[in-house]
Each structure stands twice: as structure tokens, then as C-alpha cells.
Specification:
The complex is a heterotrimer. In chain A, a hairpin with a 2-residue loop joins β4 and β5. Chain A is mainly alpha-helical. Chain A has 15 helices and six strands. Classes of the chains: A mainly alpha, B mainly alpha, C alpha/beta. Chains in contact: A-B, A-C, B-C.
Chain lengths: 386, 303, 397
């Protein structure tokens, strides 16, 4: 008996192109509009568009297209990024917001590896972000070049994270949650208490200078002047892209399968010979590295850090972003980060109520749509054709 | 030496409050395998209800001892209602969700409670002054100042812990709670009303939170909307260190945490800011060494 | 289709639109150019009474200015919340400074926030006049043309305070200050002037501003047994210190700083515990200045629920100064910065303003205050000065 499987036709490209183009346009619109009423209307239109798209299967079509044509996807993303930069060329604060979203998204991609793939609880995401930031603040004045600073931020996060490895590996479930939880609080209190790290007053930092190019300069291309924050936006974008690609690689490879096995059933995985400890350590380390690097970038960009930038509440926000986007799905992190970081800034009239509304939103999502915005697709392990 | 005793007295008070909070965590975990992070904010809710009670009763001109009674009653009642409501509407429906989701949801619920107080209570963002209802002043024994209200509050805290323990161990209701904690399916087949027991358990745990909130207000004369978060984390740590599901473990954990803090403060008063750092490091070390707590949780897992 | 009817309708429509356009046109011709200025202060959090008082005073200044038909511009005050946190301040100021439609700012009650944001103002060349933060380093650690301040610096109040305590015979002190740059600076000058007056400081404590439980520090202080406890920090921490001091049975005179000046402190500890607290504030007594009466009357008339608090008048002065400068120099950041460099003897409701070469107002003098019956009273007018009431364990009262 021979089993013949029809080769699946590759998905069409045009849904992908439209999705990327509309997303870029929506992003520019959201960032540029300041008037609250116009903003509200725009948001309503975008939300309605997304709901309709989901109803008519456009999201599935886009996902399929993206999976089948990775190269095209990358080209489209680059084009969209350039369009956004040009659209926001005069909007300093808008570019700052975009960069902040990218930074949070990258940290959450790291958290996706830790929580979504390996099943580890990490309630100290903001603390690792902070470790990267403080590394940059302390080593920067000592003359360390900026690119190295970013890497050192990542390594510092890994080193400090390794202190937590033993508790994280030995505990399960709620006990494991406590380890990172306690660390998050500990980190904050420690920074507040002593002076070497600036105490509650915080530390100032110089802006980035990369290969001689000072990031406080505006970029001039073909007669357009793009404001200086674009430098940070581009760098953050490159780092986010790198993180996405690395995570995608892990997901598609055997490592991803092993991590899933460890997460879903530890006992079975160890019975099959998987070294659980090794893979958990790997996941934890990679995630913390991402957080540390982005922390250093964040500190350099804002020029200032203080312990109150990295509280338990911020760690909780990051966990919420991961869950909101659909745990285990790295693509969901981007729109989730956008919603969580951008909307409270733009919607001035809910400024006071933003924590309350955000918490209620998360509760509703957890009750009604626990799979999040973009649920993780089941892994397809296709068998070879006979 | 006198200073050390002073620190110890203060530590006793804190340990009592932590123990009360930890008891709640452990009871909730025992019956439903859930860590209810909003417990600390339910405590805050109770404390704010207490302060409203003080304002109302002193406005009505009631005698002090009656005001104190109303303070505790209001705190316990409001906390019980809040805690039971959360359990009924949010936790029960989701009891089969992954632990991460439940954890996050209770944390968010806590945030909702906290923000509600901050936004809608008059002057919510500021600390509220809790009036002195208990006798002011104290005994001066050999340089150690023992506050009258401190003694009263510690005694009542210990009494309430004893009462809860007695309820769990020596009453039919407590028997039902323990049955559900041990094996909820069998308990149901034995005729125990599952949802009613759960509701009352959450109410009981939240009552202790309200009581602790009133204690806090009377002792420190100050409450603010954010006080519940750190208390919840410390209570959670204490419950875990003591072993989840074990009431004596929770109480032990509470006093242990306070003891660690006191140790730092007594040994190096100028480094007192580090007391929480030290205590949490010890907590992390403890759960690494004994992953299921000091009084270990006996657990059977179906493979 | 009746062509006649349609063309008649068209004609009416045309006439109405023409009339509307003309009306709008003339409306534009009479409207003044709108100018945006930013006010920054703590609007939420435990320091918010001060921020809100400042905001109300700034809004009052704008209202009064806008009601004057002779001004060239119409002012719009954008209010921002810095939560008294350095990192939030940095974010808010970055936002304001990158917004090119805002031409000037009146920032900051909290010194810890101001010292963090100073560089951003300079980087984006946004001129500003501080309305309350008193840390000297804000204007003196560097020479940025954009930075100005109408309130005093904390050196004056500590000098006057140390002398006052000496005159009243106090010799032993303990200092409790918060660990931000503000508290550190307060402690530095307090220590300097107290030692200059040949008094003894038995202990110094540095406490994070959010710390709730002060029993550790207070137990140690009880052991040291000083006559005076000096506090260098803001109201929430100060209130906690005063309350917990009482609970541990410590009897010492409580000496504050400008940070606890205002109704917020008295409300937080209650009139009984506040009674007898002394503090030193870098401003002439508002009630006695003619401008002060004007300010108080206008503030009442405007119907604000919250009191202006200690620095409300300074917020009014700073806002007014900014607007007057814009009237002279035009709504351009560079021109405003240049014009603010020339401020000499500009009249205000408090006293004439003169900026030195670092943008610091050199005129405010220090007034001593004491809490009497739940209100801050100028020392010289109080019953403590006449000897009817005495400070705690006062050697020479």
C-alpha cells in the first residue's frame, strides 16, 4: 500500500503584502495623531478591521503566506520599516515610543522562549532589563565602547541569572514562581538601598555612539531629515529582527521540539533521555541575554535609569504581554507589546486609569480568550512521503 | 541590649501580621491549589473599610471601645465579601486553567483592587492617617519601651491565629475544608457541598486578612493603597517556606521572615534598608535547599 | 427638475457660505496667536497636594493673563504629571521637549526629579523656570542657559535654621534625611552650619523616601537621646518619622525643612503631633506682602478646591514671568532663553526677581515658621516667640 500525499500549494503572497502595508500605515497613523477624538475614531477603525480580518480568515491566510515565503516577508518588513521611519521623520516622541515597543517586544520574545517553550516561570523580566541598564550606566563612563556595552549588558544578565538557576531548576510550579518573584523585589530594594548604583536618585548615561556615528545626530537621506531618535529605532529594530530569527530557528529545530517535550511532560521527557536541566538552562540563559542587551540599549536611549523603572509591576506587564499575544507565539508579542506600551501613552484621557483598565483587560483575556491574540499553532511534524 | 529587645518586639508584631497573611495563602492553596495573589490587596480593602468605620463611628460620637469593635468588624466583613466574590466569580470558573494563567489573573485582580482604592477613595494616592484608638504610651522596662497598643495587638493576633487553627482542626466545617483539601472528588462523593465549602473557606481566609489589615492600621497609624503588594509577597514567601497547605508552616514562615528582618536590623541598624534583601535571599536559598518547604508538602503525582 | 428652484437654492447656499467665510475670517483676524507652555509637577502620589496647588496657581496666572486684552498672545497651559519620580520626569520632559509647539516649561516640585531632567532641557534647548525644587546643584552644577529658578536654594534655610537652634540653646542633634540628592544636600548643609555653630551631631541616617517602617532607625536614635531630630526630605517620609517617633516615646524637638512646609504635613500627622514643629522656608511671608493678598484673593475667587500649598505663589510667579517674557521676546525657544538671561528686578507678587548668571533668583529671604494650633505661623508672630508656649525641652526659650 502506498500513501501518496498531494503536495500542498504554496499560499498566495498578496494577503501578506496587504497585511504588512496596512500595519505600517496603522502604526504611523496611531503615532502621529494627537487629537484624542481622531485617535479614538482611528483606533475604532483599526480594531474593527482586525476583527473582520480574523472573521474572514485573513489572519490565517497571512500566517500561512508568511510561513511559506520567508524571504518575501523579510523584504516586506524592511520596506514597511523604511516607510514608518519616513512617516515619523519629524516625530521625536513617536520614534521613542516605537523603540520602547521594540525593546519590550524583544524582552518578551526572550520570555517566550523561557515560558512558552521551556515552561519556566519568569517574574523578573524587568529585573534582567535593569541589570543590562545598570551595566551600561556603570561601565559606560569607564570608556567601554557602546557595542560592547550592549553585549556586556546581556552577559551581566546571564551571570546574575545563573545565580537563580539552582532555585529555578529545583522547584516546580508555584515554588518556581516564587524564586523569580522574590528576586524581582530583591533587585528593586537592593538598588534603592545603596549608593553605588545611584539609589533612588538613579544614574545618568551618555547617548550611544556607534562606529563614530553619534546617535544625537539627525539622519539625512535623499533630502529628508529624520530625527535623531530614528538611530535608536533602527538599532532596536535590527536587534528585534535578530531575536525573532533566532527564536524562529530554535522553534523550527529539534531544540524546539525538546523544549516542548520538557514543558509538556517532564517525567516523560526524562524517561526518553532528554537532559531536562540542560535545556532549561539554555532557555533561561538565552531569554535573559535578550533582556540584558535591550536593557543596555534602553538605558542609553533614555539617558537615565532609576530603580523605579524596573519594578515588579513592569515584570508583570511583560508576562501579560506574552500571555496577551498568545503564549508560545513569538509573532503575537509584537501587537501585544504595541497595545500595552503604546495605547496608554497615546490615550491621554485614560492616563489616570491606565493600570486599572490594563488589569481588567488582562483578566478578561485570561477568562475569555486564554489563548491570546494569536494562538500558538500546533507543531506540524510532517512525515515523509512514501 | 535594650535596643535588641526593642527590635524583637517590633519583629513580633510584623511576624504576627505576616503569619496571618501567610495562613490565608496556605488555606487557599490547600483547598484549591491556587495562589491567590490578590490576598494582600483584600487586606488593604479591609484596612480602608476600617478607616471608614473609624470616621463614621467617631463622627457619630461612639465610645472608643465600640469604635475599635466596629473597626475590626468592618475590616473583616468587607475583606470576607471581597475575597469570596473574587473566588466565586474569577477563581472557581478558571480552576482548571494552567497555573500561570491563574497566578497572573490573581495578580491582576490584586492590581484592580489596588487601583480602585487609589482612584476612587477620596485622596486615595496619599497615605491615610489611621487615628489612635488604642491606649497610647507604654511601659519603660530597662530602656525598652513596650507599647500598650503593641501588646494588645500582638495578643489579639495570636488569638486569631489560634481561633482559625481551632476552626480548621476541631469543627465540622474545618473537617470539610480538610477533606476538600486532601481529595476534592472523594469529598464530594461523601456529600460535602464543594462550592459552598470553597466559598466559606475563601471567606474565612479573607476574614483573617481583614483582621490583619485592621491590626496594621492600628499599629502603624498609617495605611496606603500600596501596602498590600509587599505584604502579599512576604506572606506568599512565608507560606511557601513553611510548606504550602500546612497552617503551622505558614505561621512559622511568617515569624521566620520577620525574624530574618529583625536580625539584619538589630545587627546593623544603619543597613536596615537591606533587611528585605537579606530575607528574600534566605527565602530563595531555603526553597532551593528544600523545594517543597520546611514542613514538606506530601504530594502524589500521577505519571 | 425645476431649474429655477435649484438655482435659487444654490444662490442662497453660496451667499450663506460667503457670509460664513467672511465671519470666520474676521474671527481669525481678531483671535490672538495661541502659545503653549507646559507645567510639570507631581499630580498623583503622596506629594500630589503640592503639585496640584502649584498647578492651580499656574492656571490662575494664565487665566489672569489671558483676561488682559492688551496681551499679544493667548496662553494655553499644558499640565504634566512627573509623579515626583526621576524616571517619570525624564520621560515627561523628553516628551515635552520633543514637542516643538511647546515653547517654555515651568517644571518640578521635587528636586530629585529636577536634577535628573536638567540635561534634557539643555539638549532640546527648551527654556524653563523652576517653581519649587530647591537643590542648589540644579542651577549650579553646570551653566545651562535654559535653566532658571524663582524659588530659593536650600543653603539659606539651613543656615538660618542652624542659627535659630543655636540661639535657643539646643546642642545635640540627629539628622534623618532621604537618600535622594535632595536629602543628601539638605543633610550636607545642615551638618555644615550646625557644626559651624559649635553644636554636636550624634548620628546621621539616610533613608529611602518610600521606606515605611522607621523603627530600626528610631530605636537607635532613642539610644542616642538627642535634643533635636532634624529631617531633610519630603512630607510623606517626614510625617511617618514624626508619627513613629511618638510611638516609640521619643521626646525631641522636630526640626523640618521647606519640604514639610504646607498643609499636607499638618493633615498627615494631625494638629496634635504637628504642634511645635519648626521649619524654615525661603520666601518672605506671603500674607504680609501686598502681592500676597492679591494672590490669595484671586485664588479664593477662582474657586479651587485644593489649597495653593507652600509653593503655589512661586508657581504663579514663575508662570507669570514666563508669559511676560514671551510677550517681550515672542514665542520662540531661543529668543525666550535669551530674554530670560536678562531678568533683573522684575516685579512679582512675592518680591522683585533677579536671576544671577546661573539663572538662580537671588532675592528670596528665609522665614522661620512654627506650627501653632494646626497652622503654620511665622515665628515672630507666634506665641512661642513671646514665651507663652515653649518648644520641646527648650534651653533658652
Amino acid at each position: 500500500m502506498s500513501i501518496s500525499m498531494q503536495s500542498r500549494r504554496k499560499a498566495a503572497i498578496w494577503p501578506l503584502a496587504i497585511a504588512v502595508a496596512l500595519s505600517a500605515a496603522a502604526l504611523i497613523a496611531l503615532l502621529s495623531i494627537d487629537d484624542q477624538i481622531t485617535l479614538g475614531v482611528t483606533l475604532g477603525v483599526i480594531a474593527a478591521g482586525c476583527v473582520l480580518a480574523a472573521r474572514f480568515g485573513a489572519v490565517a491566510a497571512t500566517e500561512a503566506a508568511g510561513a511559506d515565503h520567508p524571504f518575501v516577508l523579510r523584504v516586506l518588513v524592511v520596506l514597511a520599516a523604511i516607510a514608518v521611519l519616513i512617516g515619523l521623520r519629524n516625530d521625536n516622541f513617536g520614534l521613542l515610543m516605537v523603540t520602547t515597543v521594540l525593546i519590550y517586544a524583544t524582552v518578551c520574545i526572550g520570555l517566550t522562549i523561557q515560558m512558552g517553550y521551556a515552561g519556566l516561570f519568569n517574574f523578573a523580566g524587568a529585573a534582567f532589563l535593569g541589570i543590562g541598564g545598570y551595566t551600561a550606566a556603570l561601565l559606560g563612563p569607564k570608556g567601554v565602547p557602546d557595542l560592547l556595552l550592549l553585549a556586556l549588558g546581556g552577559f551581566a544578565a546571564v551571570v546574575v541569572g545563573s545565580l537563580l538557576l539552582l532555585p529555578v531548576l529545583r522547584t516546580r510550579g508555584h515554588y518556581a514562581a516564587l524564586a523569580t518573584l522574590a528576586f524581582s523585589i530583591l533587585f528593586n530594594v537592593f538598588l534603592d538601598a545603596n549608593d553605588i548604583f545611584g539609589g533612588p536618585q538613579g544614574l545618568k548615561l551618555q547617548g550611544m555612539v556607534l562606529f563614530g556615528w553619534d546617535f544625537t545626530n539627525d539622519i539625512t537621506i535623499a533630502g529628508y531629515t529624520i530625527s535623531s531618535y530614528a538611530n535608536y529605532a533602527i538599532l532596536a529594530g535590527l536587534l528585534t529582527a535578530a531575536a525573532m530569527m533566532l527564536t524562529g530557528f530554535i522553534d523550527r529545530s529539534w531544540i524546539g521540539v525538546w523544549l516542548d517535550a520538557v514543558r509538556l511532560d517532564e517525567v516523560a521527557a526524562s524517561v526518553f533521555g532528554l537532559k531536562i536541566g540542560r535545556w532549561k538552562i539554555a532557555a533561561f540563559t538565552i531569554g535573559n541575554f535578550f533582556a540584558g542587551v535591550m536593557g543596555a540599549l534602553y538605558a542609553k536611549m533614555t539617558g537615565f535609569i532609576a530603580p523605579s523603572n524596573f519594578t515588579f509591576g513592569d515584570s508583570l506587564t511583560m508576562v501579560s504581554i506574552v500571555i496577551l499575544g498568545g503564549i508560545g507565539n513569538r509573532w503575537g508579542v509584537l501587537p501585544a507589546a504595541l497595545i500595552v506600551v503604546l495605547l496608554p501613552e497615546k490615550l491621554q484621557f485614560i492616563q489616570e486609569y491606565r493600570f486599572l483598565l490594563f488589569s481588567i483587560l488582562v483578566i478578561i483575556i485570561l477568562v475569555a480568550w486564554p489563548d491570546g491574540l494569536i494562538a500558538r499553532r500546533l507543531r506540524k511534524l510532517e512525515f515523509a512521503r512514501r | 541590649m535594650a535596643a535588641v529587645f526593642q527590635h524583637i518586639l517590633n519583629g513580633l508584631m510584623q511576624g504576627t501580621i505576616y503569619g496571618l497573611v501567610a495562613m490565608g495563602f496556605t488555606i487557599f492553596f490547600g483547598v484549591m491549589n491556587v495562589i491567590k495573589f490578590s490576598h494582600g490587596d483584600v487586606l488593604t480593602f479591609g484596612a480602608f473599610a476600617a478607616i471608614v468605620a473609624v470616621w463614621t463611628t467617631s463622627g457619630l460620637g461612639l465610645p472608643i471601645w465600640l469604635q475599635v469593635i466596629f473597626v475590626f468588624l468592618a475590616a473583616m466583613l468587607v475583606s470576607a465579601v471581597a475575597g469570596a466574590a473574587i473566588s466565586h466569580f474569577l477563581i472557581m470558573p478558571l480552576r482548571n486553567a494552567p497555573p500561570l494563567n491563574m497566578l497572573l489573573m490573581t495578580m491582576m485582580t490584586g492590581t484592580v483592587l489596588r487601583e480602585t482604592i487609589r482612584l476612587f477613595f477620596p485622596n486615595g494616592t496619599n497615605s491615610q492617617r489611621f487615628p489612635e484608638l488604642l491606649p497610647v504610651g507604654g511601659l519603660n522596662i530597662g530602656g525598652v519601651f513596650i507599647r500598650y497598643d503593641g501588646m494588645i495587638l500582638i495578643a489579639s493576633g495570636i488569638a486569631s491565629i489560634a481561633i482559625v487553627h481551632w476552626i480548621i482542626v476541631h469543627t465540622r466545617f474545618g473537617l470539610a475544608v480538610r477533606a476538600v483539601a486532601e481529595d476534592s472528588e472523594t469529598a464530594r462523593t461523601m456529600g460535602i457541598n464543594f462550592s459552598r465549602t470553597i466559598l466559606l473557606t475563601f471567606a474565612l481566609g479573607s476574614i483573617t486578612a481583614g483582621f490583619a489589615g485592621a491590626l496594621f492600621g492600628l499599629y502603624y497609624s498609617e495605611i496606603n493603597y500600596g501596602m498590600g503588594l509587599l505584604l502579599a509577597i512576604i506572606g506568599f514567601s512565608a507560606a511557601i517556606v513553611g510548606g504550602l497547605g500546612n497552617i503551622w508552616g505558614a505561621i512559622l514562615g511568617g515569624y521566620l521572615f520577620a525574624g530574618l528582618q529583625t536580625f539584619v536590623v538589630a545587627a546593623a541598624p544603619s543597613m536596615s534598608d537591606y533587611k528585605n534583601v537579606f530575607a528574600f535571599i534566605c527565602v530563595i536559598a531555603l526553597i532551593t535547599l528544600r523545594p517543597t518547604g520546611l514542613i514538606a508538602e506530601r504530594k502524589a503525582e500521577r505519571v | 427638475m425645476d431649474l429655477m428652484r435649484w438655482s435659487k437654492r444654490l444662490a442662497i447656499l453660496a451667499a450663506v457660505s460667503a457670509f460664513a467665510m467672511v465671519a470666520l475670517e474676521s474671527e481669525q483676524a481678531f483671535a490672538k496667536e495661541k502659545v503653549k507652555i507646559a507645567f510639570v509637577g507631581p499630580m498623583t502620589g503622596s506629594i500630589s497636594p503640592h503639585g496640584i496647588g502649584g498647578r492651580n496657581s499656574a492656571e490662575l496666572a494664565v487665566k489672569i493673563m489671558n483676561s488682559d486684552p492688551k496681551t499679544k498672545y493667548e496662553y494655553q497651559l499644558e499640565v504634566f504629571d512627573d509623579e515626583c519620580k526621576p524616571n517619570v520626569g525624564v520621560q515627561v520632559i523628553t516628551k515635552i521637549a520633543s514637542d516643538r509647539s511647546i515653547v517654555a516649561a515651568i517644571p518640578h516640585y521635587c528636586s530629585a526629579t529636577a536634577i535628573a531632567t536638567v540635561d534634557i532641557f539643555h539638549r532640546f534647548k527648551l527654556p524653563m523656570v523652576i517653581w519649587a525644587a530647591v537643590l542648589p546643584e540644579i542651577t549650579y552644577a553646570q551653566k545651562y542657559p535654559e535653566i532658571h529658578r524663582v524659588s530659593g536654594i536650600l543653603i539659606g534655610q539651613n543656615r538660618v535654621g542652624a542659627q535659630f537652634m543655636k540661639e535657643h540653646g539646643y546642642t545635640t542633634f540627629v539628622s534623618v534625611a532621604d537618600s535622594t540628592d535632595y536629602g543628601k544636600s539638605m543633610n550636607k548643609y545642615f551638618t555644615q552650619f550646625t557644626l559651624e555653630n559649635n553644636n554636636k551631631i550624634l548620628g546621621t541616617f539616610s533613608v529611602p523616601p518610600d521606606q515605611q517602617d522607621l523603627s530600626a532607625e528610631l530605636t537607635k536614635i532613642k539610644e542616642l537621646n538627642p535634643q533635636v531630630i532634624y529631617f531633610g526630605g519630603l512630607t510623606p517620609l517626614g510625617a511617618r518619622l514624626r508619627t513613629q517617633m511618638e510611638k516609640l516615646g521619643i521626646t525631641a524637638q522636630f526640626e523640618g525643612n521647606s519640604g514639610i512646609m504646607g498643609d499636607n504635613y499638618i493633615n498627615a500627622v494631625g494638629p496634635k503631633l504637628a504642634e511645635g514643629t519648626v521649619t524654615f522656608f525661603d520666601s518672605p511671608p506671603i500674607a504680609k506682602m501686598p502681592g500676597g493678598k492679591f494672590f490669595t484673593e484671586q485664588y479664593q475667587a477662582a474657586g479651587y478646591r485644593e489649597p495653593p500649598e507652600a509653593y503655589g505663589p512661586f508657581a504663579y510667579v514663575a508662570t507669570r514671568l514666563v508669559m511676560e517674557t514671551i510677550e517681550k521676546a515672542g514665542p520662540d525657544r531661543a529668543k525666550i532663553t535669551a530674554a530670560l538671561g536678562d531678568v533683573k528686578d522684575v516685579p512679582s507678587i512675592i518680591a522683585p526677581i533677579t536671576f544671577d548668571d546661573h539663572g538662580q533668583n537671588i532675592t528670596p529671604l528665609t522665614t522661620k515658621y512654627v506650627v501653632q494650633d494646626g497652622k503654620w505661623v511665622v515665628w515672630e508672630d507666634s506665641e512661642y516667640a513671646t514665651g507663652k508656649r515653649k518648644l520641646v525641652n527648650c534651653p533658652h526659650c
